[in-house]
Amino acid sequence: MAKIECVFDASGYKVGLGEGPHWDDKNQRLLWVDVFDRSDETKGKTLHIYDAATGTDRAIKLCSFVTSVVPRKNKSSSVAVTFERNFAFLDLETGKLEIIKTVDDDKQRNRFNDGKCDAVGRYWAGTLGPEPVPTQILPYQGSLYSLDVGSSNVRQTHKEISLSNGLGWSTDNKIMYHIDTYERKVFAYDFDLVSGSVTNKRVAIDVAPELGWPDGLCVDIEDKVWVAMYDGGQVVRFDPSNGAVLRSVKLPVSKVTSCCWGGKNFDELYVTSAREFLSEEKVKNEPLAGSVFKVTNLNCKGMRANEFDG
């Protein structure tokens, strides 16, 4: 039976939108972000660094909404991030953001969402359109981008994405997975690691509404896809070859946002969550909303997360 532990209790800190977990294997720590809390502008805009050995969490307050984070190769004091419409570097000591490239110049109300690196070290991230009403996104305004290794060259690979979310790759790096939450689908692409080209877009997983909204994802060593279910209170393991549900891990929060493999053996599943848009009554029923959880005893493991090579 899966064991669930709360490793960061957000009940006092009141995390608005926990997202983007990335296990930093070199330092045995979890990087994650609190994007924002629209009910309290003093909250959010924070990068968190959770030290697994000590159980402590360091919060770095930022000037903007950072939505994803990945370590940089051989740059221990700096990480690569996405914020607003920018790929950027963040100095972990000073909190200074250095913009590398800005996208969607023709759609200045767009913003980046989830992002990850492939095995070569390219940084992939997608955008989403504006929200005239919170949670109601203007559809088909976003795109999927990749920031090339060692340069500021950005390629736009796909357009007309509504709510770009989780990304991941098969163990042989021949398939890339990408979630469009608005569509309730996990898409698969044929992926060429050398060139970074993505072709043959198709639906790998069509998520049933009763499971929740598909948000972040990660892939295990058996090439099964784990998807965090926003408003579903669970992480679900799918077989991407046929879309079948293989198992579900229930969490004590409803707004589950993302997941990643961590620990020394990559057999610990770290899961982020949100409290944004929960009523006061629902928060009372979910005091851990916004917290970070560690799930073990899964008899499953993942792979080392990739860093940005630049």
From TrEMBL:
Active-site feature positions: 215 (proton donor/acceptor)
Coiled coil regions, renumbered to chain: none
InterPro entries referenced in this protein's UniProt entry, alphabetically: 6-blade_b-propeller_TolB-like, Regucalcin, SGL, SMP-30
Gene3D superfamilies: TolB, C-terminal domain (2.120.10.30)
Any one Gene Ontology cellular component term annotated for this protein: cytoplasm
Principal subcellular localization: cytoplasm
Cofactor note: Binds 1 divalent metal cation per subunit.
Residues that coordinate or bind substrate: 111, 113, 131
Cofactor(s) demanded: Zn(2+); Mn(2+); Mg(2+); Ca(2+)
One term of GO molecular function: gluconolactonase activity
Binding site for a divalent metal cation: 19, 165, 215
Key words, A-Z: Calcium, Cytoplasm, Hydrolase, Metal-binding, Zinc
A Pfam family assignment: SGL
The family this protein is said to belong to: Belongs to the SMP-30/CGR1 family.
Protein name as catalogued: Regucalcin
Organism: Paramuricea clavata (Red gorgonian)
Phylogenetic classification of the source organism: Eukaryota, Metazoa, Cnidaria, Anthozoa, Octocorallia
